[in-house]
Structures are given as C-alpha cells and as structure tokens.
Protein 1
Amino acid sequence: MTEIAFKKKQRSEGKLTSWLLSNSPGSVFQARCQRAYIAWMAFRANPIAMAGLLIILSLLFVALFAPLITESDGTPRDLANRLSAPSGDHWFGTDELGRDIFERIIWGSRITLYIVGLVTVIVVPIGLAIGTIAGFLGGWVDNILMRITDIFLAFPRLILALAFVSALGPGLENAVLAIALTTWSPFARIARAETLTIRNSEHIMAAQIQGASTTRILLSHIVPLCLSSVIVRLTLDMAGIILTAAGLGFLGLGAQPPLPEWGAMISTGRQYLLDQWWVPTVPGIAILVVSMGFNLLGDGLRDVLDPRSGDGK
Amino acid sequence: MLKITRRHLLATSLALALAAPAMDANLASAETPPDMLVMAKNIGDIITMDPAEVFEFTAGEVIANVYDRVMMFELEDLTTLVGGVTENADISEDGKTITLKIRSGQTFHSGNPLRAEDVAFSLQRVIKLNKTPVFIFTQFGWNLDNVDSMVVATDESTVKLTIDAEISPGLVLNALSAGVGSVVDKELVLSHEVDSDLGYAWLRTNSAGSGPYQLKTYKANELVMLESNPNYRHGAPAIKRVILRHVPEPSAQRLLIEKGDADMVRNLTPDQIKGLAGNNDVTVNNYPKAGLIYLASNDLHPFLSHPKVREALRYVIDYEGMANSFLEGQYQIHQAFWPAGLWGALEEKPFNFDMAKAMSLLTEAGYAGGENLTIDTLNQSPFQEIAQVIQQNLSQLGIETEIILSEGKTLWPKYRARKHELIIARWSPDYVDPHSNADAFADNPDNRAEAKLTGKLAWRTGWFDPDINAITAQAARELDLGQREKLYKDLQRKVQRVGPFSIMFQHNEQVALRNNIKGFVSGSNFDLVFYRTVTKE
Amino acid sequence: MSDEAKSEEMGRSRRFSPFSSRALKRIGNFLFTVSLTFIGLTAITFIIGRVMPADPVLAIVGDRAPQEVYDATWLALGLDKPLLQQYGIYIWNTLQGDLGTSIMTARPVLQDLIHFFPATLELATVATLAGIFIGVPMGVFAAVHQGSLGDHIVRIIGLFGYSVPIFWLGMVALLVFYAKLSWLPGPGRIEVYYDGIVEPVTRFILLDAALQGEWEIFKNALAHLVLPASMLATFALAYIARMTRSFMLDQLNQEYVLTARVKGLSEFSVIWRHAFRNVLVQLITIIGLTYASLLEGSVLTETVFAWPGIGQYITNSLFNADMNAVIGGTIVVGFCFVGINMLSDALYRFVDPRARG
C-alpha cells in the first residue's frame, strides 16, 4: 500500500468514525448506523461474546465449504477399516461402518444449521404473530391466545416433542416440526409483553389516528420493536434447540441414517465408548462447542441489545 | 465476606470430594450373592407371563423355566423330543388320536397335584382365551366349539387328543412343546378368575406351574425374579434366585459384567465381545440359535414384483463383508428359511455378493436406472447397519433408497398392511418343526387383501405361488419322516430361488458369563433356555 | 432457559392485579387454569395417540397374531367407537380416578405412576437441592467479584452446564467414575439383589431405607443416586448460578446498598442481609422453574442410567403405543409444572410485600 493510499484510508476511516460517533446525526439512516456501530463496539469489547461469534462463524464457514474441506460426504464405508483410532488419515478416527468421523462431523454441521434455521423460520413468525396480536388487541382474543400458549408452556416439552415425532414418524423434518411446536410459546409471551409496553405509546396512537390498519401497525410499528428481544431470546434458545434435536437423534427419532446428525452419531456410537472412545466423544464435543457458541453469542447480544436485563455486564 | 464465601465454596467442594470415595469402592463393585444369579438382559419385550399368550423372546424363556410342558426338549439332548409332564404319547394308526399318559406324583408350586385334568384344562384354555399363539393349536382342527370334546381327560392320568386336520402327528407333538403346551395349575388359576377370564388377568403377572422355578416378582421394564422349586421333577436347582434385570443398553451390560455386578449378560454386540477379550474374569459362550435376518421385497410393488429384480436383490447383499465385520461371531450366513443345525435344514448357500450379476439381472428385467425405494427396518443394531450397507450397494446400481427406522410396534403394522417396499426383519420359529417356518415363508392360500392372513410372511409380501402352497401342505401331513425331510428341503430350495425373501443370516447367541458361572444351557430355539443346571462356584 | 420470560411476565401481571377480592379471584383463576390444562394436555395426547403409526393392538397381541385375535382385541380396547366418544369415556374414567390399564405392565396406570414417579421425584429433588446449595453461593460470589477470574469461571461453568448434552456427559461420567475409577456404582436405582427388601412406604428409596434402618441399602441407593443426580444438577446449577449472579448484580448497583456501605455495615451484612434478601424472591421463581423442568427433562438421563422413573416410563410407553400410560404420565408431569408454578407464585407473594399489594 502506498503511503498516500494509506493516509487516504486513514482519513476516510477517521471520517467514517466521526460520522458514526457524531453527537447530532443528520439523518435517520445515520442514527441507525450509529446505534448499530455503538452496539458493535460494545459487543467487540466483550471477549466472551466475540468467542461465541467466532464459533458460530466457523460453523457457518465449515458448513458452507464442506465439499472443499472433505474428500467425500462421509457416507462411503470401508468395512475393512472399521473403528480405527484417530490418525493422520482419519483425524477423528472411523466409525462402526468404517466412515471417517471428521468428514461426518463436517457434513453434520450442515444438518445442525438446517435444524436451527428451520426452527427459527417457523417459530419466530408464529410467536410474533400470536404475541403481538394478543397484546395489541387484548380482550378475549388475548385471553384465548394466551390460554393456548399456557397449555403449551405447561406441556412437558421433551415428551411433547417425543409424542409428536412418534405420531409423524421419525425423521429430520418431523423432529424440526416437533421442536418448533414446543418452542414457540415463550416467543409469543415475549412478543406480548413487549407489545403491552408499547401499545399505548404516542407513535402507535399517532399511527392509529392517521387511520393505519391493524395489520399495518402490527407489521411496521410493533413487530420491529419486538425483534431485538426476540433475537436475544432466539440466540439463547439455539443451544436448547440443538440439544433437543440431538436428544431426539439420541432416542432414534431425529435424523435417520446415514445422515451424519451429531446426536444420532452419539446414539449409535455409545456402544463403542469403552473401547473406541472417539466414536461417541467427538460428536459430543461438537454439540458442546456449537451450543456453547450460541450461548456465548446470546449472552453478548443480550448485553448489547437488551441492557435492561442485568445479566452479564 | 470474602472469607465466608470462600469457606462456603471450600465446604461444598470438600463435601463433593468426600462424597465420592465415601460411597466406597466395595459398594461400587460388589459381588452378587452366592445363591443368586443376576442376569442383565433387555426384557422390554415382555407383555405377559400367561403361557397361553406369551409370544415374546424373554417371556418365552421365562415361562420355559416356570412351566413344564406336555412335550419338551430336555437339556441332556436338545434334539430329541421327550415327554414333559407326559410319560408317553401314543399315536393311533390313522394318526388322528393321541393318548397322553401323565407321569404320576408330580406337583405344582402350590403343592396341588398335577393331574390329567390340569393338562386338558391348560390346552383348552389356549383355545378359549384365543390369544396370539392360538394358531399353533387351531391347525389341529380345534376351535371354541369342539375343544372340550377334542381334548378330554379320560381318567386321573390320561388325556386323549383328537386331531381333525391333514397334519402329521409328529408335527402335533412338536407343537405341543411350544409355550402353549405349558401345564397350568387349574385350581390355583381358577381361584383367581375374574369375570370368567380363566385367570387370565392374574396369570399375566403371576405363575402357576410345576417347572424348576416359580415367578416371584415381575416389574415391567425393571426385573423378573424367579425362585427355585425345591420339589422339581429333576431335583432342586442349585441357584435359589434368578434375577433378570432390565438393562436395555448393551454398553451398560458390558460395564456390569466387567465389574461383576451381573453374573451374565445377554445382549452384547460383536464389538463388545471383542472388547472383553482382555478380561480374565469373563468367559464368552456361543449358542447357535434359530433366529434369522432376512430382506423381503413387496410383490405388490410394480418394480419389485419382477422375478429378475427379486433375484438381483440376492446378489447386492455383501454377505461376507457384513458377517466378517460388524456381525462377526453373532451371525453367520444362512440362505434358507429353516435354520441350520435343525432337522430338515437346508444348508446350501447359492448366492454371493456379485454386483455385476445383479446389474445384468436388472437389465434383463428391463431396468434402465433411476429407481427410488424405501427400506424399512428396526431401529436397532444390527438392522440399521445392514440397511445402510444394502442401501449403498443399491445406490451403485442407480437404485436410491431411503431408510426408515422404527420400533417394532410401528414397523409391524406397516408390514402387516403390505405397505412396505423393502424390509429387513427377523424371524424365529414358534416351535421346532420346519412347518413353523414353512407356514410363514411359503404358504399363502389367499393373496387377496381382504383375506388378511397377516400372520404369514408370504401373504404380507403379497407373494402367491400355488405350487409352493401344495408342497407346504403335503409336507405338513406326510407321515414318513424321511419323505417329510426331503419335501422340506425341496420346498426351501424353491422358496430360496423364486420367493421374495433373501434370507441372509442366522443368529449365534453370545453370552458373557463370569468365570464362576457354569452349566447355563441355551438351545436352538428362543425358549430352549435352561436355568436349572446353572451353578455358581 | 426458556422460562425466564414466563416468570418475568408473571411477575408483571401480578403486580397489576387489583387487591380487592383477590383471593376469590385467584382461586377461580387457579381452577380455570387447572381444568384448561387438564383438557388441553389430555386432548393433545389423545389426538397424537390416534394418529400414531404404532398400533396399540399389535403392542398387545404381537407381530404374528392371526387376524381374528387382532380384531377381538381391537374391539376389546373400544377402538371401534368414534374418537370423541373414546375421549369422553377416558375423561369420565379419569375423573373417577381410573386412568386405565397399561398395556406394557398389565397394571392400572395409576399404580404404575405411584411406582415410577417417586424415583424421578427423588432424582430431581436431590439435583435441585445440589443446584441450590452450590449454584447460589457461586452466583453470589461471581456478582460480588464481578469481572474477576472467579466471575469468569462461574460464567463459563454456567454456560457449560447449559451447553453440554446431558446424555453424553452421563455416558462419559459412567465410563470414568464407574468403569475406570470404580468410585461409584453403575446404572440402576439400587443393586437388584436388594430389590424387594425394603417395604415401599414413601416409595423414596432413601427415606424408606432410612426409616426401616436398612443402612446397607440406604448407602447403596445413595451411591447409585450420585451420578444421575450430578448430571441433572449440572444443568440446575448452571441456571441457578447464572440467574443468582444477574439478580445480585442488579441489587448491588442499587442505592440502598451504597447507603448501607456508607453507614459502615459489614460486607457480610450488606451482601447477605440486604442484597440477598431481595434476590431471594426472584430466586424462588427460578428454582421452581428449574425443579419443574428437571422433572420432565430427566428423560434422557433416566435412559442413560437405567433409572426406573417416569420419563422412561412415558418414553417406553410411547414406543409401545401404550397411550393410557402416556396420557397418565403426561398429566402427572403437566400438573407438577402447573403446581410448582403456582406454588412458587404463592411463595413469591408471601415473601415479597410489594406483590402482596
């Protein structure tokens, strides 16, 4: 880099920083960017949160580039080379059908992301919809919706998930549906609580007076305000979701073979714990690391986005 | 403040550190008591202990030790059928009447004498209760209306059985050695009768027999406790109490046997058996069993119904590869429906792993690639491993398969409704006579859906072959032993080549025992297991 | 933990509730919630039982049953009646205390529940107590020494307990403490040859053995309890320590703490007599939630440790299409959930004067 270019960059950086930190933002856009930047600064200063972010980013990276990292997708078996110990050829050893555990772990990251992503896509809209509608409309609508939510809250979760999967038949998609069915209720609660606190605020009133429809108010005024607590909650729940999925896999109700889902890998590998410890241990550590990552990240996000809750300053 | 908290933390960590060794080492690995046999086994399959209903492996084994049967295989010679409670069985010229002479001086656990009346009652009870294994007796032509006249106690020590079906009397006697042939204590059972249920509700969790042991406690999914019968016909068993402890996890069983917390364990995997090699306190015994694992294709499926496709399937199975790796020591290759080592078995193995041959057979069938199928199987080892190996071989031929693992309770309804495509399942004979399996694998008199012959595997796979049916019937009624054996071998050869079943493996039970346990006997069939000769040194 | 919001939310609505005719309204509310939960739980489980591919008839008669036997059993189970009628019959019987008979155990479901539930209760209780006695001091310590190494360690432990798959940890613990070190006994609630010696009075083996002076059995049962309880306690401890820390931080930043310090009160007094007392209120809710979630969350731990508890009972029944048992078990666990929530609610009111109005 030439000296001039460097100086230019430095200047532009300085300019950007001052724009981001200026006391009197000139536009809504600038104000939003400022808020995000300050949040990011706070986040970056938190080593635990950064560790979490790093873990999740590596998970994304590994899942995205799985075909480049591994030689095969972890399904080819080599019955002659079963249960071999970790070595240069097989970093994490091989499993009971002679498959490379390292490759299976790498490909399994895609399944984990798939589960997490799909649950998010299902749970967040449902939770938001029920919670905001109940909170905004109040009255009997609120009553009915919240009673339903209460029933789901009272239901033993893992057992509901188990029952649901056995009704639909075992499989990855059904496991995801079952988990979603058992996780949406707290989100509805949060969304309702948030909605209650902002329902009577001035700008909602103003929008109402201007004749905005209920749907419009919900979508463009209330939902965005609920998002940050929902995101925090979601990140913190991710670990729970991953663990439940692994538990279902462990009981044989989640992903079906030959899919390299980590919980199912522990389940089939557990009989080798005594003599070939690596078979169930490696996927166990993988689950631990990833759910730890989500928890660290969630903790950090909460500090930044939801400063009201005092946890983890 | 700091001090306090530190003291707290210190105290708790100390408590924790102390707690562990305080649970002291001798508790962690206690020896089992000397007059007791602790056996770890998966006993989750038990539904009932009533011999007129028992059809599951574990309960079958338990009642074999609790009840003496009309006919039995004794551990001194596991291949010869002898009288149990019967002294001898007399067959009439025409083969339609069997006269049973009951041994004198036998008593039940309750102290009641065992009379001809008890024998007749026990057999009639099976028909009257009409539970699953009833089909073993209905094939004699017995039914609700006639059983009281077909099974009669003519005096204190004689029972007369009348057969009203085209069936060999040898087969009848073999069938009387099944669990339904158990003799129950009529007086005791009837004293527990509720709503004229013939004592069914009570007998599901209690026992009323005359065998070497009596059922002391049964706790579903926990344990079965048996107590010895000091007055047993062959003398009192050496072990006073036998406990079957429910341990579903093979890995947990492995730990228990190594630690000496169990005297024997029954469900170790081949890999765990290998892992035991270094342990000098544990011996592994082998017992060839009659259980089979097979792959079946649904004949109602347009692609799978082609004879060449069915044949091709037999060549995509890597018999050797599996038998020498994850099945090693516990399953051997067997390709006919009647298990090796038993009378009438066919031990030829015409098929081997040959992908080229499979491909050419598929081509002959007009297959052009790109078929999608499902493989249903049980969600346990080794079924899921076998399914994955077959899945991969099929995919090399361009046949993509999806594996569906389920519990038996979910898998069987699908199979019985003929909704599967490929299925990997197991089978074990109901009694030691080739007809037991021929009836399942070969016979299908009515292939219509509404016939609902759900007990027969041939019907479940939608496979119908009138010639095969004819041979099955002929073999069942043949009186000459040599001729009968030949008919069964022919039948097996035919089914092997044209049927929808690829029989793959036969079970070999590996039982791990502590070295001080001797005298355990396990015969070919699931209920030929004897506890009474076990000793503990 | 997913129930934080729930407790927050409960707290909020509580404070807004009017003081007058409070008790009456609360009783009405309680009854309403209980009956609604009952109907909801049973209805959902009932429907699930209906659409399940596992066949209850086959669970009884076995795979090889002839069709006549199958049909007879189908009728005997009343499966020919319309679904709504079946449900009605079930509810009617349940209200009379008859939960039906389990297919698997051939016993009345109620009797099974009385048999299996105490095992889970014992496990969850010990785990929760361990979680409280270790988690609370840990949380307080971390809050007082915010930012110190100790604080970070507490946070990491907390996050670990949250993130680790308990069933996997249980396996590893069995391997280490039972197989390798021989410190602790293996799976199960008690050595089988001790079975049936202690008369089941309370059905908590520890209590029964102690009451009857069977110390050998007491020791054995206690030793068996250590590992599975530690696994559940890992989770309880993590959650309790984490919440304690965060509640304490809130309090320590309040002005009254500063005032107390300025007045020259000892640190001990400031932390335990003042700050902690205010935290106690919130902690009760958290502990209640932990306890409730351990009651149902023990399914996997019970599987790994062959613990004959209600989690295993429900799971096994589910696999065996034994729906009477599943519904019965679900009702019990569901009611514990509701009950514990109500109880911690009542305690909350009792301890916190503000909530009383």
Note: Residues 1-18 of chain C have pLDDT under 50 and may be disordered.
Protein 2
Amino acid sequence: MILSKDPQSSPVEFIENDRCALQVQQLSAGYAGHRQAIHDVSFTVNRGERLAVIGPNGAGKSTLFKALAGIIPHTSGNVSTYGLDCRTSHTLIGYVPQYEEVDWQFPATVFDVVMMGRIRKIGWLRFPRKVDRDGVYSTLEQVGMAHLSNRQIGQLSGGQKRRVFIARALVQETDIILLDEPFSGVDVNAEDEIMETLEHLNRTGITIILSTHDLQTASTRFDRLMLINQQLIAIGKPEDVFTPSNLRQAYGGAVSVFQQGNEMLIFSDEHDHA
Amino acid sequence: MIDLQTLIQNPLSYDFMQRAILAAVIVGIVSGVVGSFVVVRGMSFFGDALAHSILPGVSAAYIYSGGAAFSMPLLSEIQDESLRLFVGGLAAGIFAAVLIGWLTRDKRLKEDTVIGIVFVAMFALGIAIISSDPRAYGRDLVHILFGNILGISNTDIWIMVVCGVVVIGIVVFFFKELVVISFDVGLARTLQLPTEGLRILLLVLIAVTIVASLQIVGITLMLAMLIAPAAIAQLVTKRMHHMIIVAAVVGAVSGVVGVFISYHLGIATGPAIVLTVTTLFLIAFSMTYISERFSPAH
C-alpha cells in the first residue's frame, strides 16, 4: 500500500488508516555502514497497541526510536502518525530517553521537567499559563507522581525517574509513547512499577512502543514483538517471532526459546541487561 | 577597630571607586546568569577558551591608541577607545564561538579537541598582534590579561549596562528554550525547536558577557566569574531559575567585596574578586557537605 505524503489531498486513505497510529515505510537512519544504522524498516502500529522492540546490542533499536521521534534525521523513508507526515508534526510522538542520556544532577524539579514537554504548546516569548500548569499536574496524577512534583529529579527512585519522563511525553498531548530501554538499570520492583504505569496508560488508549533486552517481559506483557537487527527481521505474536531461524538471524545463536505447552522458556547468553 | 567611615565611605568618595563598584555589580550579575548555563551544560573549558579567544580582537583594537603598527580598516573608524576594544573583542569572541560551533556540528571532531585548537591559535594570534607594538606588549598586555578596573571609563559602564540588559533580556525571554537545549537536546529536536540556532545564541551570549567583563577581571580570570557563582548557586538550589538568581546575587556581592578588599589591601582587583568568590565557594561547599553528612536523613 502506498501512503500519500499529503493526507489532506486523500481523505479516504486517512480514514482507511484510522486504526493505525504509526506507519513507518522503508525507514533508513544513522550513518550508512555504521553498526547501529537501520535500513529499510517498514511496519505499522495500531492505535492502543503495546509493541516491544527487541534485538541484540547494536541492532539499532535506539537509532530507530530516535529517528521516529525526530531526534536524528531519516536518510530515507517515511514516518507518519494518523496519516500525518512526522517531519511536520513530531509533537505527536512522545519519547522517553535512556537513563544514561539524562543529567540527573540538573537543577530541575519533577514539575520543571514535565513542563519542558509543553514548551511548543506555550510558544515563543511566552511564559507557562494556568492551562500549562494544570496540564502538568494532571499528567503527574496519571503516572502517580503529583505528590513528588517539587522533588529534584536526582532524588527519585529508578521507577519514579522513568515515570517523570513518561509524564513529560504525555504532556505533549501525544498518544504514542516511545521508551528506549526503560528497564535497563532498574530492579524487578521498579520494572513492575513502570509496566503498571504503562498498562494503566494503555487502557486509556495510549500506544506504547518500547525497546528492551528483557525477552520475558516483552513476550508476556506486550501485544506484539518486533525483532530487529539493522533490518526488520520479524514482527508479530511471540510464537511467530521466536522461531529458530529468526533468532539465529538476529542473535546468531546467543538466544534460544523452548516452547512447552503454553509456557515459553527463553535463554539468553547476552549479559547486557545492566 | 573597624570603622565604617574608613571601610566603606572613604573609598566611595573617589569617582573611580564608584565606577569600579558599579561595574563589578553589573559584571557579577551578568556572569552569574550566563555562567549558570555554562555550569549546567559542563562548558567551563569552552568558557575559558572563549575568553582567551577574544585577545586578537582586543589587541588589534588596543594598539590603535598608541600609533598603530598596522592598519585595521573597520576598527580605526571607532574613535572611543572603550568602544573600540569592545567591538574588537566581541568580533573575535563571536568569530571563535561560531567557528567552534560550526566545527563541532557533526561530531566528527570532539568538542574539546576543536576548542583546544581554536583557543590556543586565537590566543597566540592576539599575543602576536600586541607584540608588534613593544610599548603595549610590555605594559598593557597585563591589563588585558588580568583586568584594569581602575581604568574604567563612563563609556565602559554604558557598554556593560547595555550588554547586561540585552543578555538578561534574551535569557528571560528564551529561558524555557535555553533550559531545554541545555537539559535534553533530544526533546528540543522532538519538539522541532531550532536547536542549532539556540546553541549558537547561547555561545554568543557567553561571548558578549566575557567581552563586557574584560575590564574587571581580564581574560585569564574570567572563567572564575562564570563558574564559581553558578557553582555555589547549584549547591544550594534545585531549580534553574533559582540557581540563576542566586548566582547573580553571589556574583554581585563578590564583585563589591572584591573591589573593597583590593582597595584596602592594595592588591589588583581582578584577583581580589576571584579570591573572594572562591572563598565563598569553599564556604558553601563545606556547609552543604556538613549539612548532608549530619542531616537526620543519613
């Protein structure tokens, strides 16, 4: 199917894609030949879906997310949300960066960080108004962080830190959230806390796209999995993605999956889950 | 016996002291505001480099006053020496800021590498220019390097006031954008802000602040004015705008205290201000360390 670059000129197609939140066509990004570059990736994500992106280290998961969020340019291809080209409407995608990419000593409170998500809505040469402050507080309520709004961000627990950035993505008035490795460097309790927040948001219609090394969580708590290694290898239900040939192609034998009745056992030699 | 008359009032009876104090207050405030961004972005090496990079502009403008060794067509149009030094320094500073920004735009070279090359080259060029005039080289280079607060003219004060108002005005009106590019440039790109333009704007603000402060602390001591008040402020605040306000107050207070110390002890003003602010930093650091160490939470 070919998606028109200009949704206004083809309203029929827009309605056809109504269920589709995010459409990615032949996306390439990153320095060509670089290990983390991605090449020719196409997929669609439905409204309200939970998609986990998996793949070995250096597979280009971060590159894919940064390209989707508009942080790095596409070398080719198209990204559209609800039929709108993302290059002109990036504010429709919220992005939660990796833990290591944030300066946690920065002089900013939980409130300040979430307010940063509003600056495009506030506009140039203007200061936050009541509607912006109300928006910040209501998204903090949604992720259960309103009581900590005056806390400096470095003083939060691992799970709370992720939830602040989830709130910041939400306050952009987006309903698609990308999370780059939200479970890296947190303990099991924090991982549960983050997943509960995400599942709560998901029930209100938010589309969740998340990258992780945790294949167990990915296969049990998400609607679909996407396996990438520079290119798209497979996307679908866990049993369709975790085939020996897909895994060999992505991990080169470092991961194996055993199916036993309804139970799926995943063995991974990769020890990059910090 | 300490006596307010000799301590405060006597020095203030001199015109040059009044100007020195006014200048120190303005420079303290502006350095605190801009320095807060330098500190949270971890750009102290850049700030130091930029301060050194203004030397060729200042030198070229300076040697005009005492029989030019060679001719600079644009600078020679400006009659007032203070303004000429300012324009020369600002041109060199903005040139260095934009050059460093441009060379590091695609990350093929690391920023500190580029800064190291541009900074020393510009500084060397400045020394070369001023050494072409033996009189200036022997005597006046010291003023440019370490400041000459007693030589502040009314024009200097006006330049500082105008720069201060413009710099602080820009920081206020672009505050949220400047904070976002300092904290999370990824978010700024996601929101489609002009991140490169904002980064260059910040570099230019730093350059203007440095050139306007030249007379007070000089090129080599400038970094302390940018870093120390902001570092103190970061220790005691948890929000960016609070940090900026505290840094401005600390900058102004250390400027004034430094000027008085320099008057009473008969030492150069630039070092007196820098040592004052460093002392304040040590006090603030010890106090926060002690309060963290012995607070009930730990």
Note: The radius of gyration of chain B is 20 Å.
